[in-house]
Amino acid sequence: MSEDKSDAHFYYEMPSKIIFEGMGLNYASEDGCFTNGDGQVVVINVDQTGVLVRRKELVLFLNNNNYDIIWTLLGEKNALTGLSTNSDAYFKAICGVYQFEGDKIIGDLSIFERN
Known about the structure:
Blueprint: H1 17-22, E1 26-27, E2 34-35, E3 41-47, E4 50-53, H2 55-64, E5 70-80, E6 89-101, E7 104-113
Antiparallel strand pairs: 1-2, 2-3, 3-4, 5-6, 6-7
């Protein structure tokens, strides 16, 4: 894209087709931004790793279509305190599930010992 003279960013996230069409989104003049039918920006890329959607419009879309969104988290924490054996190692698994409930995001985050 750097050679096409469009000034487009090389990479940005887009809403899925269901969200794009269901929320009636349009491409904005700035790459990575999307507007609603009133011309208001409701989706914006803050950087190359994420996209923000206005909560009010997203919740309205979800409620009108009887949809839910859940977020799952999975990670790990490793710390080595010695150089030779796993007996000096510290391993944790991190996981969680979150969802909208009413106007709030609720969920749980758990941390487990890994051997």
